[in-house]
Amino acid sequence: xxxxxxxxxxxxxxxxxxxxxxxxxxxxxxxxxxxxxxxxxxxxxxxxxxxxxxxxxxxxxxxxxxxxxxxxxxxxxxxxxxxxxxxxxxxxxxxxxxxxxxxxxxxxxxxxxxxxxxxxxxxxxxxxxxxxxxxxxxxxxxxxxxxxxxxxxxxxxxxxxxxxxxxxxxxxxxxxxxxxxxxxxxxxxxxxxxxxxxxxxxxxxxxxxxxxxxxxxxxxxxxxxxxxxxxxxxx
Length: 235
Hints:
Elements: E1 28-36, H1 42-55, H2 66-72, E2 83-90, E3 107-113, E4 126-129, E5 132-147, E6 152-162, H3 171-185, E7 191-192, H4 200-208, H5 224-228
Parallel strand pairs: 6-7
Antiparallel strand pairs: 1-2, 1-3, 2-5, 4-5, 5-6
């Protein structure tokens, strides 16, 4: 009996792809940038200060106005006095700054989220670069101080604030890291700030960032009538 014909050669099986299927969603990228604030940003800074005061349950103490901010911020070169970093966000690549500051190179980072971030206030906190709409998501305000023990200057952070819709996504760490990086660049010895004792989420976040929370220290403050009493002191 004749030998059976050999079975047909199996067809080539394609190599499995290591990448995502072509139909798989690629997520929702969010392009971010930290840049120096300018006087044109005062309206946004003022609105965020008010939101921060409400969050901290201290709105009754917030008397800052756009005029008072404009007349006291931006009077000296960056990092020599009061300095503000702004967090910008966009769903498309950020356009270059038209007049970048020689004092600071903006920090850019792209995040990828499973879902888009819904910001009902985006139009209120928008800036426009030509046809590009960019949203302001937060800020940090800081200024130099000095440590006699270290014999070095440092930075004191007065405020670090991320708007409600962008919290717990890494943006606060990005702002804090920018200040710490600048301190290291300038040879400074420390970065300091205060945190409300009831804000356990913030305390945990700062500890995760490497900060030591010092419970033995207390804030002493002269303000309002107590400070005005020293206008003509009997020394």
